[in-house]
Amino acid sequence: MSNKSKLWTKDFIIVSAVNFLLTLVFYLLVVVMGVYAAEEFNASASQSGLVVGIFIVGALIGRLFIGRYIEKFGQKRTLFIGAIIFILATALYFFNFGIGFLLLNRFIHGIGLGFASTATGTIVAQIIPAERKGEGIGYYSMSATLSTALGPFVGLYMSQHTSMQGIFGLCLTIGIISFFTIFFVKIPVIVETEEEKKIEKEEEGRFIAQFVEPRAVPIAIITLILALCYSSVLSFLNSYAIELDLVSTASVFFLVYSIAVLLSRPFTGRLIDLKGANIVMYPAFVLFTIGMIVLGFAHSGFTLLLAGVLIGLGFGNMQSCTQAIAVKLTPPHRMGLATSTFFIFLDGGLGFGPYLLGLIAPTIGHSTLYIVLGIVVLATAGLYAVLHGKKASSAQSQALA
Start and end of every Major facilitator superfamily (MFS) profile domain (predicted)? Predict the structure, then answer.
């Protein structure tokens, strides 16, 4: 294999590690901040929920802003700025200035992650060889998958065995390690062609193109719907497990989910590069649908964990696949904006989904909600075919002709 086709380079490993560490802090704090707000500041249930959720709002706004300016600032400088904001916000958790200050700091912390993760996603898209984009992004996104499993586990463990000051200390240490690791990253210089410069100049005149990448929006819409459906699992699984008396089993649900993703992504990423995205996306739609329906009918620990495996094989692989699609559709000089667009829609679904679905869940119950959302996932396969699948199939056929 030539050096140009090499995937596991020093820079790829470092950027993936930085993304893992920063995302780990996010998921670690997600499971403890609501309880911390209630106990330390006597916050109401809605205020505690806001303390958790406002972080995602900050990340969304951070992505929306930096997506437009990342090429001007430079990816590495953007990553440094994001890491510095991230570290400062983490350090401010040690100070108790009331619930209002905590909310503001959580918002700023989210902006820092929005900056940094948009930069890491853009950098990794540039350093991955073109012929291994799907495989590379699959491996890169596993860094976030690992953090979704390890972060909540560490957070809950530490909350039972140490103080919040100890938790904040660990988070600050992780942030500082990430900052100094960035110095070792070397980012390739992207030279724009005259045609790309011409297109960029034309796009600058369009208001919407200054904030999102239009070519990435169709697949980002699919991501938004799928993330909204998956948010029901993140938000309501514990409540559902209490109803089923399966709390102990639910505690390993996301571990099983992550294992399914980790074992399958090396194969699915390579398939995307060799055969196109459709060969992964359509089976993933079916697996995600079955997983949600199995979850809705769960009555034992086995069926609950089976749902975790199926949802991991479905949504877990869709997440990296849709990101790869967004990057592949976009010229190099717009990769930062494409990455930002993808994550804005992903975070939007994960962040606002719990609120929207929370309006429905009390009326129809968790079991019915999961079954209905499984049907929504299957219907989204039709929308995917219209927005991307048919065009991708046609392009693949022409390439093979």
Answer: 11-392
Q: Residues 163-191: pLDDT tens digits?
A: 889 999 999 999 999 999 999 888 766 55
This prediction has a pTM of: 0.77
Contact 125, 334 (CB under 8 A): no
CA nearest to 149, candidates 230, 237, 233, 254? 254
Q: Give the chain's residues under pLDDT 70.
A: 1-4, 45-46, 68-69, 188-211, 332-333, 335-336, 392-401
Which two three-digit tokens encode residue 291? 């997983």
Q: Is 401 helix (H, G, I), strand (E, B) or coil?
A: coil
Which has the closest alpha carbon to 230: 169, 305, 310, 168? 310
Q: Are 193 and 334 in contact (CB under 8 A)?
A: no
Residue from 312, 141, 319, 316 nearest 220 by CA: 319
Q: Which amino acid is at 15?
A: V
Query: Residues near 127 by Cβ (< 8 Å), separated by ≥ 6?
Result: 9, 11, 12, 15, 187, 188
